[in-house]
Amino acid sequence: MPQTNGVVHFEILGKDQKLLEAFYKGVFDWEITPAMEGYSLVKPGSGIGGGIGAMGEGHAHVTFYVAVEDVSTALALIESKGGKKAFGPHPIPDGGIIGGFLDPDGNLIGLVQGPPGM
Asked: Do residues 75 and 85 make contact, with C-beta atoms less than 8 angstroms apart?
């Protein structure tokens, strides 16, 4: 896991996952591989890695994830500063934990805690 508080991942979620994947592959030549139903990973080139997926019941959005030591603690701090918890903490396949919040202007930002031992 990169340094705490650094941007480590991005997401682009919309109505048509395949259309988005084809667009970003065509524009930026990104290597995109399926990760799970409704979500694919973008292999990092010279920047951070990311994901492209279908929004499901949510709203289409573009967001980024910030590395934190503890998602629960970060969400509590965010709420004390005027933000609002959007989701999480939730475990992810690599053993890490994700969460998300809305900033005071309603922008969705993600948090990620590395797997134990990282």
From this structure: yes
Domain 68-118 classified CATH 3.40.630.30?
no
The whole-angstrom separation of Cα 37 and Cα 54 is 9
Phi, psi of 2 (to 5 degrees): -60, 175
CATH number of the 7-59 domain:
3.10.180.10
Give CATH 3.10.180.10 domain extents, the chain.
Answer: 7-59, 68-118
pTM of the complete model? 0.77
Residue 1's pLDDT band (cuts 50, 70, 90) = very low
DSSP string for 42-73: EPPSSS-EEEEEE-TTS--EEEEEEE-S-HHH
Q: What is the DSSP string of 2-13?
A: -STTSEEEEEEE
Count of Cβ atoms closer than 10 Å to residue 61 Cβ: 12
Tell me the per-residue pLDDT of 66-85, one tens digit each, with 9 for 90 and over. 999 999 999 999 999 989 99
Segment 28-41, tens digit of pLDDT: 788 999 998 999 99
